[in-house]
């Protein structure tokens, strides 16, 4: 099972349509099971999509419109043009770049059986970028119900800090801890920095697919100064895929970085391949790390 996460920087990229096509081709070539996307924008005043075009869409919040330039919808249509049917969902979180509804999206090869959204920030102001949600979906990719949660979190030291957002995430995910459960996305916390967000996650019993992977690269998804990291000059690993249960991970690579896939955003993506649970015992236990 291949899982992918990418902060898309939607509609802020040059040649955006071409980059969406390139992303669709990559997803097809890699046979990705589920994709979590952040910064998924749609124009506030763009034309609405006809209901008949939303057969594979799983609504989360009542009354949320989908516009023709919704990044996830455009990507799903590109995949459909390649002969692939991806079920998908999207939830708005806050205003993006003054003119967009910015949100979170999930695309899945397996049908989405259930979906929800949940505020993890104390802030509920739709006009503020510090307002944060998570998006959860239940699918059955390996013959077993699995929860995938997509998030775009705040920074460790901020007016709306990561710690409180992660505490809210932990509380919301309590009902799902007995089964397969993954959290994916842009965590905005550098994995190399000790005693901040990354360590806080691990202290709560989560397993980073990067450290579990049999094969992996350096893992850096941001190499330069970008929005939110304006003074950055060092490679950062801030985009993760984590599991509540230890799992066997065949590989974990940075993608859409010019080496494995075309650059399509100011972030690179992450692609992890998790072995089927029926493949056998866990090859890389936590004790071996």
From TrEMBL:
List the molecular function annotations (GO) for this entry: hydrolase activity
| UniProt keyword Transcription regulation present | no
List, alphabetically, the Gene3D superfamilies matched: Endonuclease/exonuclease/phosphatase
**Which residues fall in a coiled-coil region?**
none
Superkingdom to which the source organism belongs: Bacteria
Residues forming the Endonuclease/exonuclease/phosphatase domain are: 18-267
Signal sequence, start to end: none
Any idea what this protein is called? Endonuclease/exonuclease/phosphatase domain-containing protein
